[in-house]
Design a protein that fits this description.
Rossmann fold, 15% strand, EC 3.1.1.24, AB_hydrolase_fold
Length: 259
């Protein structure tokens, strides 16, 4: 495990409780824009960052493992002088949160896991996607990714936002995306979930084709002690973006219960 200095955007009062937001594969810190103002208005210090290999963060040589992504978060907290933070992650960000919950629970005040999984196969799918991106770039997966991120109804109602998401995916570094595919391909945290002793909330999208409620969301909620499952209606994989009001309400409730 080796930490890199990830790109971060920090907003909110300097003395406010810290909330760290961790992005999905193929996105960057901008995917969390709908959550920033509501959190800052409640007095929280919001830390968004770009996962290694994404956005403005470094793209170190691979392979990457989920432990590396978790180590980057610990290095980020150390760099900011933050002893404990609330952590919310979606998809790959949620996988990072699971690793932190197992290996660095003392650094977490709460854990919100959105549209994610402790083991997301089949492994060959991730190997094939990495191969495609290395050959043709992230633009090759942008259209299909948006089709999983948001529902068709959302894309029809908000073509500008769907285009923004498509452009964001296409702008990600190909090698960083591919190396993160490898981390997901090899990840298996299922057997470690009962070790997580952090107050956790699982949020799933009712229409998520990538990490559907059954089995992924249900499995997390039943395996992590004291965890509840919330299912957002009319939400695909990027539930925080498609249903920002409901997601932010659930996130704020989870954070404030554990302040």
């Amino acid at each position: 495990m080796s930490g890199v200095r990830v790109h971060r955007v920090v907003e909110g009062p300097e003395n406010g409780p810290v909330v760290v937001l961790s992005n999905s594969i193929g996105s960057d810190h901008r995917m969390w824009e709908p959550q920033v103002a509501p959190l800052v208005e409640r007095g929280f210090r919001v830390v968004r960052y770009d996962t290694r290999g994404h956005g403005a963060s470094p793209v170190p040589s691979g392979p990457y493992e989920v432990a590396d992504l978790g180590g980057d978060v610990l290095a980020l907290l150390d760099d900011l002088g933050v002893a404990r933070a609330h952590f919310a992650g979606l998809s790959l960000g949620g996988m990072t949160g699971l690793w932190l919950g197992v290996h660095a629970a003392g650094r977490l005040a709460s854990l919100t896991l959105c549209c994610t999984s402790a083991r997301l196969g089949p492994p060959q799918m991730w190997a094939d996607r990495a191969r495609l991106v290395r050959a043709e770039g992230t633009v090759a997966v942008a259209e299909a990714s948006v089709g999983r991120w948001v529902t068709p109804a959302y894309s029809r109602a908000h073509p500008d936002r769907a285009a923004f998401l498509r452009d964001m995916i296409a702008a990600q570094p190909s090698e960083g995306y591919a190396a993160c595919c490898g981390a997901i391909e090899r990840m298996d945290l299922l057997g470690e979930l009962p070790k997580i002793a952090v107050p956790a909330l699982v949020i799933a999208g009712a229409d998520d084709p990538s990490t559907p409620v059954e089995p992924h969301g249900r499995q997390l909620a039943e395996s992590i002690p004291g965890t509840r499952l919330e299912v957002m209606a009319s939400a695909a994989h990027l539930g925080s973006y498609e249903q920002p009001g409901e997601f932010t309400r659930l996130l704020l409730e989870q954070i404030m219960e554990n302040e």
